[in-house]
Write a structure and sequence with these properties.
By secondary structure, the chain is an alpha+beta fold. 32% of the residues lie in helices and 27% in strands. It folds into 2 domains: 2-81, 60s Ribosomal Protein L30, Chain: A; 85-259, PurM-like C-terminal domain (Phosphoribosyl-aminoimidazole Synthetase, Chain A, domain 2), CATH 3.90.650. It has helices spanning 2-8, 29-46, 107-117, 133-137, 145-154, 167-173, 193-202, 206-212, 228-237; strands at residues 14-24, 49-57, 67-76, 93-98, 125-126, 131-132, 157-162, 181-185, 217-223, 242-249, 256-259.
């Protein structure tokens, strides 16, 4: 759900409804009901309706215990309220919103490093995480939909970037005009332990980690300088840790770059 509604909200659109599609090797009614229940609960948090969907059985394509899940969502925004690169201005500040963990991207790398290379099991307790590895990997994706809509409606918000595949810099670059650039300061936050764990256990370099994982930031709002601190307060009221992580510069290129290092 998060990968749908929060991809939609970045343009200022309010998600209205969602449909889902579940394909399984063998339809287990209790398991299907649990999946749909989880989707419905996330839709409540996001403020949209789950209208329905389809469940298909593919015994020749999937093993009995396997399933594939997909969905789509529809939202609405007035044309004059669309957020995007054309609104971004030099001097805008970048407000980062903390992720809850890995979210829904980078699991191929995580599995390769921790399960295949290191040979860890999902029930292994990891001291750095304070819990079993499998529990960490199942941490639900944080939903930003309603707080981000509040930012768009109440403050001078120019653009937003949902940090998914490709990492923080690449996703932010998508909402920058060619005439400007942005700088993100790593020293403004400490990523959760799971990110350092993948890097250290798998000897994965920083560049590769940052191109694959969200590194602790799930969403970025590009906000007018005067409203940035108000944005941080608004997000805190919605229980989303947020902070100013960088700024937009009068420098051609349309690219975001990361500088400095994370605190230890």
């Amino acid at each position: 759900v998060g990968m749908l509604v929060d991809d939609l909200v970045v343009c200022g659109a309010e998600p209205l409804f969602m449909t889902d599609y579940i394909a399984a090797g063998s339809v287990d009614p209790s398991r299907i009901a649990a999946i749909v229940r989880g989707i419905a609960e996330a839709c409540v948090v996001a403020g949209c309706a789950l209208l329905g969907g389809e469940t298909a059985e593919h015994p020749g394509l999937l093993e009995a215990h396997e399933y594939d899940l997909a969905g789509s969502t529809t939202g609405v925004v007035e044309a004059e309220d669309l957020l995007g690169a054309e609104r971004v201005r030099s001097g805008d500040l970048l407000v980062a919103m903390a992720s809850s963990g890995l979210h829904s991207n980078g699991y191929s790398l995580v599995r390769q490093v921790l399960l295949e290379q290191a040979g860890w099991t999902l029930d292994r307790h990891v001291d750095d995480l304070g819990r079993a590895l499998g529990v960490e990997l199942l941490e639900p994706t944080r939903l930003y939909t309603r707080p981000c809509l509040a930012l768009a409606q109440r403050l001078e918000t120019h653009a937003m970037a949902h940090v998914t595949g490709g990492g923080l810099a690449a996703n932010l670059s998508r909402v920058l005009p060619e005439s400007l650039s942005a700088v993100i300061d790593r020293s403004t936050w400490v990523p959760q332990p799971i990110f350092d764990l993948v890097g250290s256990v798998g000897q994965v370099g920083r560049d590769d980690l940052e191109r694959t994982l969200n590194m602790g930031v799930g969403m970025v709002a590009v906000i007018a300088d005067a409203d940035a601190e108000a944005a941080v307060r608004l997000l805190a009221e919605a229980a989303i840790p947020a902070w100013v992580c960088g700024e937009v510069l009068e420098k051609p290129g349309g690219r975001a770059s990361l500088v400095d290092v994370h605190p230890r």
